[in-house]
Amino acid sequence: MTAKGAGLKYKRLLLKLSGEALMGKNGYGIDVTVVDRLAGEIAEGIAAGCEIAVVVGGGNIFRGLAGAAKGMDRATADYMGMLATVMNALALQNALERAKTPARVLSAIPMPTVCESYVRPKALTHIERGNVVIFAAGTGNPFFTTDTAATLRAIEMDCQAVAKGTQVDGVYDSDPHKNPDAKRFDQLSYSEVLSRNLKVMDGAAIALARDNRLPVIVFSIEEAGSLLKVLQGEGRATIID
Ligand code: UDP
User: Fold this and answer.
1) Chain segment 106-130, per-residue pLDDT in tens
2) Which of 211, 209, 216, 210 is nearest to 239 (CA)?
3) Which residues contact 169 (CB under 8 A, 6 or more apart)?
4) Which residue's CA lies nearest to atom 13 of ligand 1?
5) Which CATH number fits domain 12-169+210-226: 3.90.1150.10, 1.10.8.60, 1.10.3430.10, 3.40.1160.10?
6) Which atom number of ligand 1 is nearest to the Cα of residue 21?
7) What pLDDT, in 10s, does the model give residues 143-201?
8) Ligand 1 centroid – CA 18 distance (Å)
């Protein structure tokens, strides 16, 4: 019998999906076809024997900073942003179940009639049993981001890396969609990301990863099969360690 996860470089991974990854070409909200495709990528990783946890963002629905810029109180706006991540988490859970992959949503803000609350030992048990655990509501605190939540949960869950699925195949020194001469990196150190102010994750998330020696993988989730390649230690990605 082949051992669980044979051939995989990462046996337990935290996948960070931004809210924008769920909205497809609509420019707002949730595109169910896109969510189904993402669920298929995750299901493939689970079938290969990896344990996968997910943190979803909420930027496709609401961002605290955008609310604050229009005059809202920042903390209230951030709570709205966290609630947006719960909607995305439920959509992803539903898509995973359609893909015959058991998934649980655990929210950092308790809402017992909607989903389970985040309790670390419970989350670990779900992961060990082969469920995809989707962490919703970020860290549960305003003034943070879901990138920081992803790093935090990856460390708490003892994941071997946090993988950020984006629309490009790694980290560039400027936006490759706007600058055709943008330089791409295969490898970076945490301090280079911070000192060059590279737009990967916010500074708090990178500092937390650095202090806990958690590798950060940035890859394109747009290509079919890309998550499995990351799990196998292959494919195009930028590794920050
Ligand atoms: N948010 C928060 N605390 C957290 C995580 C998220 O207050 O721990 C709020 C914040 O307002 C943020 C919004 O939720 O703008 C959506 O999260 P994020 O911007 O990280 O989503 P993404 O850019 O990944 O879609």
Assistant:
1) 999 999 999 999 999 999 999 999 9
2) 216
3) 184, 219, 220, 236, 237
4) 81
5) 3.40.1160.10
6) 25
7) 999 999 999 999 999 999 999 999 999 999 999 989 999 999 999 999 999 999 998 99
8) 9
Provide φ and ψ at 117, rounded to 5°: -90, 155
Strand partners, 161: 13
Mean of per-residue pLDDT scores for the chain? 96
User: Please, are residues 181 and 145 in contact by the beta-carbon 8 Å criterion?
Assistant: no
Which run of H or E residues covers position 13? strand 12-17
What element of type H or E holds 96? Answer: helix 74-98
Residue percentage of the chain with pLDDT more than 90: 94
Nearest CA owner, ligand 1 atom 15: 63
CA distance 210 to 165: 19
pTM attached to this predicted model: 0.97
Mean pLDDT of 211-221: 97
Q: Is 165 a pocket residue for ligand 1 (Cβ < 6 Å)? A: no
> Which residues neighbour 136 within 8 Å (Cβ) at sequence distance 6 or greater?
56, 85, 86, 88, 89, 90, 105, 106, 107, 108, 115
**CA 187 to ligand 1 center in whole angstroms:** 26
| Contact (Cβ atoms closer than 8 angstroms) between residue 12 and residue 158 | yes
Q: Where exactly are the structural domains of the chain?
A: 12-169+210-226
Q: What confidence tier does 1 reach under pLDDT thresholds 50, 70, 90?
A: low
Specify the residue with its C-alpha closest to ligand 1, atom 14.
81
